[in-house]
Write a structure and sequence with these properties.
CATH architecture of one domain: Beta Complex
CATH topology of one domain: Beta-clip-like
Shape: globular
Largest sheet: 3 strands, antiparallel
Strand content: 15-25%
Number of strands: 10
Distance between the termini: 51 Å
Order of helices and strands: EEEEHEEEEEEH
CATH superfamily of one domain: SET domain
Structural class: mainly beta
Number of helices: 2
Length: about 170
Amino acid sequence: MAKHWKPTTPYFTVRKSGIQGKGAFAVRSIRKGARIAEYIGERISHEEAEDRYDEDAMEHPYTYLFTVDDEVVIDATRRGNGAKYINHSCEPNCESLIVGDRVFIEAMRSIKIGEELTYDYNLYCDGPYGRGWRTRYACHCQARTCRGTLLRPPKRKKGKVAAKSKKR
């Protein structure tokens, strides 16, 4: 029998996920637009986040950090709640919204009881994606339109035109 943790909100419980580690699963029907949870944790600077977690040295980069703005990062490993277990999906049913200096997770559509809650992490790298980035930031969402990575698609350089496929 799957181990269940105590629900952290009236909307979900945390348990083992087929996507990655633990996940958040709806314990009741959730209507589109419902504010499901606030993403909370210790508020730190970007410099402190870099000091705590050397992503270049990690096989699998840390995803409990949430960038609020140019100055603040939320570290959900410290004083966080169950929202940190909401996994990434390329076809999410939730979205993250930054309101002032707070981060909320809201339903993008109606969600059924038992459905895993997900949002697009929309991660990015400041510079070019380094060697092995596809493996380190691999996506396991299994969505029909999975892009294979937690990262946003790399930005195209100005003046470059994407190749178009030819119909046969």
